[in-house]
Amino acid sequence: QRSQKRSNSTPENPRPKRTLSSRSPYALFSPNSFSPSVTPSQKYAARGSRGEVVASFGSVQGPSWSGRGGCGCTPKLFGSPEENLTKSYKFMFQKALDIREALSWRIEELGDALKSHHHLEDFASVLLPAQEPVTVLGQIGCDSNGKLNAKSVVLEGDRERSSGGQIPLDLSELKEYSLFPGQIVALEGTNSTGKRMVVSKLYEV
User: Which region ranges are annotated with the description Disordered (predicted)?
Assistant: First the structure.
Protein backbone atom coordinates (compact mmCIF):
# COMPACT_ATOMS: atom_id res chain seq x y z
CA GLN A 1 0.00 0.00 0.00
CA ARG A 2 1.20 3.46 -0.92
CA SER A 3 1.14 6.05 1.81
CA GLN A 4 -0.63 9.23 0.80
CA LYS A 5 1.05 12.47 1.82
CA ARG A 6 -1.29 15.07 3.23
CA SER A 7 -0.24 18.65 3.66
CA ASN A 8 -0.49 19.91 7.20
CA SER A 9 -2.69 22.98 7.69
CA THR A 10 -2.51 24.93 10.93
CA PRO A 11 -3.61 28.46 11.87
CA GLU A 12 0.06 29.49 11.80
CA ASN A 13 0.71 27.83 8.43
CA PRO A 14 -2.59 27.75 6.54
CA ARG A 15 -2.84 25.59 3.49
CA PRO A 16 -3.10 27.77 0.38
CA LYS A 17 -6.53 27.73 -1.23
CA ARG A 18 -6.88 26.63 -4.79
CA THR A 19 -7.21 29.47 -7.23
CA LEU A 20 -9.54 29.35 -10.18
CA SER A 21 -7.85 28.76 -13.47
CA SER A 22 -8.16 31.43 -16.12
CA ARG A 23 -9.61 28.79 -18.41
CA SER A 24 -12.33 27.86 -15.94
CA PRO A 25 -15.78 29.25 -16.79
CA TYR A 26 -16.37 29.92 -13.09
CA ALA A 27 -13.62 32.54 -13.10
CA LEU A 28 -15.78 34.78 -15.30
CA PHE A 29 -18.50 34.88 -12.65
CA SER A 30 -16.39 34.99 -9.51
CA PRO A 31 -16.73 37.91 -7.05
CA ASN A 32 -13.25 39.09 -8.01
CA SER A 33 -14.31 39.78 -11.58
CA PHE A 34 -17.21 42.02 -10.52
CA SER A 35 -15.84 43.70 -7.38
CA PRO A 36 -14.27 47.14 -7.87
CA SER A 37 -10.66 47.57 -6.86
CA VAL A 38 -11.28 49.72 -3.82
CA THR A 39 -9.01 49.56 -0.80
CA PRO A 40 -10.99 50.27 2.40
CA SER A 41 -9.51 52.39 5.16
CA GLN A 42 -8.23 50.67 8.24
CA LYS A 43 -10.17 52.96 10.60
CA TYR A 44 -13.47 54.69 10.01
CA ALA A 45 -12.27 57.97 11.49
CA ALA A 46 -9.15 57.94 9.27
CA ARG A 47 -11.02 57.28 6.03
CA GLY A 48 -10.08 59.35 3.02
CA SER A 49 -11.97 60.62 0.00
CA ARG A 50 -15.11 61.13 2.03
CA GLY A 51 -18.10 61.84 -0.19
CA GLU A 52 -16.30 60.93 -3.42
CA VAL A 53 -17.50 58.29 -5.86
CA VAL A 54 -14.97 55.45 -5.88
CA ALA A 55 -16.83 53.00 -8.11
CA SER A 56 -19.80 53.22 -10.47
CA PHE A 57 -21.60 50.85 -12.79
CA GLY A 58 -23.41 51.82 -15.97
CA SER A 59 -23.71 55.26 -17.52
CA VAL A 60 -26.11 58.14 -16.98
CA GLN A 61 -27.41 59.93 -20.05
CA GLY A 62 -26.97 63.57 -19.06
CA PRO A 63 -29.42 64.14 -16.20
CA SER A 64 -30.84 67.62 -15.90
CA TRP A 65 -32.66 69.24 -13.00
CA SER A 66 -34.74 72.35 -13.13
CA GLY A 67 -37.08 74.19 -10.82
CA ARG A 68 -39.02 77.40 -10.56
CA GLY A 69 -37.65 78.27 -7.16
CA GLY A 70 -39.55 79.69 -4.25
CA CYS A 71 -41.24 77.87 -1.42
CA GLY A 72 -44.89 77.77 -2.42
CA CYS A 73 -45.46 74.10 -1.47
CA THR A 74 -47.09 73.26 1.83
CA PRO A 75 -47.56 69.60 2.84
CA LYS A 76 -50.98 68.59 4.12
CA LEU A 77 -52.04 65.54 6.11
CA PHE A 78 -54.75 63.34 4.67
CA GLY A 79 -57.02 61.19 6.78
CA SER A 80 -58.15 61.44 10.36
CA PRO A 81 -55.68 62.99 12.86
CA GLU A 82 -55.42 59.83 14.97
CA GLU A 83 -54.18 57.84 11.94
CA ASN A 84 -51.37 60.26 11.04
CA LEU A 85 -47.96 60.54 12.61
CA THR A 86 -47.27 64.06 13.82
CA LYS A 87 -44.04 63.37 15.73
CA SER A 88 -41.00 61.12 15.54
CA TYR A 89 -41.88 57.43 15.64
CA LYS A 90 -39.62 54.44 16.22
CA PHE A 91 -40.17 51.70 13.66
CA MET A 92 -41.08 48.27 15.10
CA PHE A 93 -41.43 49.74 18.60
CA GLN A 94 -45.21 49.31 18.73
CA LYS A 95 -46.82 48.16 21.93
CA ALA A 96 -47.91 44.53 22.05
CA LEU A 97 -51.49 45.59 22.83
CA ASP A 98 -51.60 47.85 19.76
CA ILE A 99 -50.31 45.03 17.55
CA ARG A 100 -52.92 42.67 18.95
CA GLU A 101 -55.68 45.20 18.34
CA ALA A 102 -54.61 45.62 14.69
CA LEU A 103 -54.51 41.85 14.13
CA SER A 104 -57.90 41.36 15.76
CA TRP A 105 -59.42 44.11 13.62
CA ARG A 106 -57.94 42.49 10.50
CA ILE A 107 -59.39 39.07 11.37
CA GLU A 108 -62.85 40.55 11.97
CA GLU A 109 -62.77 42.61 8.77
CA LEU A 110 -61.74 39.68 6.57
CA GLY A 111 -64.18 37.43 8.46
CA ASP A 112 -67.06 39.69 7.43
CA ALA A 113 -65.85 39.56 3.84
CA LEU A 114 -65.68 35.75 3.94
CA LYS A 115 -69.14 35.51 5.47
CA SER A 116 -70.79 37.71 2.82
CA HIS A 117 -68.88 36.23 -0.13
CA HIS A 118 -69.49 32.56 0.71
CA HIS A 119 -72.90 33.16 2.37
CA LEU A 120 -71.80 31.62 5.66
CA GLU A 121 -73.68 31.52 8.92
CA ASP A 122 -72.31 32.87 12.17
CA PHE A 123 -68.91 31.53 13.22
CA ALA A 124 -68.47 29.17 16.17
CA SER A 125 -65.67 28.88 18.72
CA VAL A 126 -62.65 26.73 17.94
CA LEU A 127 -62.40 25.60 21.58
CA LEU A 128 -65.87 24.07 22.02
CA PRO A 129 -66.38 20.39 21.11
CA ALA A 130 -68.80 19.94 18.20
CA GLN A 131 -70.14 16.64 16.89
CA GLU A 132 -71.79 18.36 13.91
CA PRO A 133 -69.87 20.39 11.32
CA VAL A 134 -69.34 24.00 12.39
CA THR A 135 -67.74 27.00 10.69
CA VAL A 136 -64.92 28.79 12.49
CA LEU A 137 -62.83 31.85 11.73
CA GLY A 138 -59.17 32.33 12.50
CA GLN A 139 -55.59 32.78 11.44
CA ILE A 140 -53.31 30.01 10.18
CA GLY A 141 -50.27 29.35 12.35
CA CYS A 142 -47.48 26.83 12.86
CA ASP A 143 -46.97 24.84 16.06
CA SER A 144 -43.20 24.61 15.60
CA ASN A 145 -40.23 26.74 14.58
CA GLY A 146 -39.82 24.92 11.26
CA LYS A 147 -41.63 25.30 7.99
CA LEU A 148 -45.39 24.90 7.77
CA ASN A 149 -46.48 21.40 6.81
CA ALA A 150 -49.65 19.30 6.96
CA LYS A 151 -48.84 18.08 10.49
CA SER A 152 -47.97 21.45 12.04
CA VAL A 153 -50.94 23.59 10.95
CA VAL A 154 -52.92 25.22 13.75
CA LEU A 155 -55.79 27.70 13.67
CA GLU A 156 -55.73 30.67 16.02
CA GLY A 157 -59.35 31.64 16.55
CA ASP A 158 -60.69 35.17 16.62
CA ARG A 159 -60.85 37.07 19.89
CA GLU A 160 -64.60 37.62 19.97
CA ARG A 161 -65.73 33.98 19.71
CA SER A 162 -62.62 31.90 20.47
CA SER A 163 -60.69 34.25 22.81
CA GLY A 164 -57.63 33.74 20.59
CA GLY A 165 -57.40 30.02 21.39
CA GLN A 166 -55.49 27.64 19.11
CA ILE A 167 -56.43 24.22 17.84
CA PRO A 168 -54.50 21.78 15.58
CA LEU A 169 -56.02 21.09 12.16
CA ASP A 170 -56.45 17.74 10.40
CA LEU A 171 -56.35 18.45 6.64
CA SER A 172 -56.49 14.84 5.43
CA GLU A 173 -60.04 15.19 4.11
CA LEU A 174 -59.23 18.15 1.85
CA LYS A 175 -58.42 17.31 -1.76
CA GLU A 176 -56.23 20.38 -2.23
CA TYR A 177 -55.22 23.41 -0.20
CA SER A 178 -52.60 26.13 -0.06
CA LEU A 179 -51.89 27.78 3.28
CA PHE A 180 -49.31 30.11 4.77
CA PRO A 181 -48.74 31.40 8.32
CA GLY A 182 -50.83 34.48 9.06
CA GLN A 183 -53.50 33.67 6.47
CA ILE A 184 -57.07 34.53 7.53
CA VAL A 185 -59.45 31.69 6.64
CA ALA A 186 -62.83 30.26 7.53
CA LEU A 187 -63.01 26.51 8.03
CA GLU A 188 -65.84 24.03 8.22
CA GLY A 189 -65.24 20.82 10.12
CA THR A 190 -65.89 18.73 13.20
CA ASN A 191 -64.22 19.08 16.59
CA SER A 192 -65.51 16.07 18.49
CA THR A 193 -62.90 16.12 21.25
CA GLY A 194 -62.24 19.85 21.43
CA LYS A 195 -58.53 19.20 20.82
CA ARG A 196 -58.32 18.73 17.03
CA MET A 197 -60.51 19.93 14.17
CA VAL A 198 -61.02 17.72 11.10
CA VAL A 199 -61.45 20.17 8.24
CA SER A 200 -63.94 19.35 5.49
CA LYS A 201 -64.14 22.75 3.71
CA LEU A 202 -61.80 25.69 3.38
CA TYR A 203 -63.01 29.22 2.63
CA GLU A 204 -60.43 31.77 1.51
CA VAL A 205 -60.63 35.45 0.65
Answer: 1-43
